[in-house]
Amino acid sequence: xxxxHYQPLAQFVAKHFKLSRPSLESxxxxxxxxxxxxxxxxxxxxxxxxYLYFIIDGVQxxxxxxxxxxxxxxxxxxxxxxxxxLDAMMTAQKSKYVYExxxxxxxxxxxxxxxxxLMNENSEIAQMINLGVSQALGGLLERLAELQLMSSExxxxxxxxxxxxxxxxxxHKYLASYLGIDATNFSKLMxxxxx
Length: 195
Description:
By secondary structure, the chain is of the alpha+beta class. 48% of the residues lie in helices and 23% in strands.
């Protein structure tokens, strides 16, 4: 089995997916440690997403840029979870988004080419990846519904219910962007909503 460095990945996979021991060992074998600096761009717009990441420590975000350079935060990733620009990863298309480390981050990463090879060789790993992608899509659809149907306060409360620790991990300007709320309104919610 993996060394201590890879234990968080092994534990996460064992907890959330059903893989035999040989499949788990095959899945973990190609991962390598990577340390990202604060504000380091891991994937840029018009770049291929070359890696799947597993977060050991730190916070990252995926964001979009409009033609004027305005940012819209789409997703946060933090331990223990997988990260990267999912659509670019799965379709081998150039990324439309930026994946950035908001804080110094301790990661494991594996080249996408290795993941695709494992999926072709091992049906258990292929099922696990497909399930993970389906769960990510379900989460994104739920978030899209929240953005379109909820008031600012409801979105704020939903975020606190889902991830209460996020307020201490992520600068509030990025949380406001993630919720589609003006930064001033976000500050008002912070002061008025009982946490």
